[in-house]
Specification:
One of its GO terms (molecular function) is acyltransferase activity, transferring groups other than amino-acyl groups. This protein is of the alpha+beta class. The chain has a single domain, classed as Aminopeptidase. Helix content is about 25%, strand content about 25%. The chain is built from four helices and seven strands; from the N terminus they run βααβββαβαββ. It has helices at about 35-45, 55-65, 105-120, 135-145, and strands spanning about 25-30, 70, 75-85, 90-100, 125-130, 150, 165-170. A seven-stranded mixed β-sheet has the order 1-2-3-4-5-7-6, sandwiched between helices. Helix 1 crosses helix 2 (about 55-65). The longest helix is centred in the middle third of the chain and has 15 residues, at about 105-120. The protein is globular, with a radius of gyration of 15 Å.
Length: about 170
């Protein structure tokens, strides 16, 4: 399979490149055991209505450590992304979260682009995700990366009142 060009998911005129991070030491890496408390903090900030419990985050760490990327600066986490391994060429973006004080700086885009490149390298030909149809920021990000909706909103996808729109991207 040919390598995916690093600029495949480039920024458009409507979506300028992100501002530089607060420091030069910000980097994406796989999660480590000592990250779990910070991961819980970021997830709670990103999803205050329905955050993952520490128990679930611990299980993700134990079972999917290589598929859980964090954006860290050496002292704190600022974002994370959890993906699934390809099954029949399809992978799922299971969660993407950015700390409240670091939003709208391109960190979610950086995490998505890195994850999409890794998925492609692992043999995924398609990435899918479920997004709250009211989350305009997420819809804008995913749309700018080339994700497209698969039909209409799925009512109660994650339970009562938890509607989702399914999106997909061919890699």
């Amino acid at each position: 399979m040919p390598a995916l060009p690093r600029d495949r998911f480039s920024w458009s005129a409507d979506s300028p490149p992100p501002l530089p991070p607060h420091g030069s030491s910000l980097r994406i890496r796989t999660v480590q055991g000592e990250d779990l408390a910070e991961l819980e903090r970021v997830d709670t900030e990103a999803f205050p209505k329905n955050p993952y419990s520490y128990l679930v985050l611990r299980q993700f760490f134990d079972a999917h450590r290589d598929d859980l990327l964090v954006l860290a600066d050496g002292s704190a986490l600022h974002g994370y992304i959890l993906v699934s391994r390809p099954v029949n060429g399809c992978s799922w973006i299971l969660s993407l979260g950015v700390a409240r004080d670091r939003r709208r700086q391109g960190l979610g885009r950086q995490l998505m682009v890195e994850a999409l490149h890794r998925l492609h390298a692992d043999g995924a030909g398609e990435a899918r995700l479920a997004v709250d149809p009211a989350n305009e920021a997420a819809l804008g990000l995913y749309g700018s990366l080339g994700f497209v909706a698969e039909g209409k909103v799925h009512k109660d996808y994650y339970g009562p009142g938890e509607d989702r729109l399914l999106l997909r991207l061919l890699l």
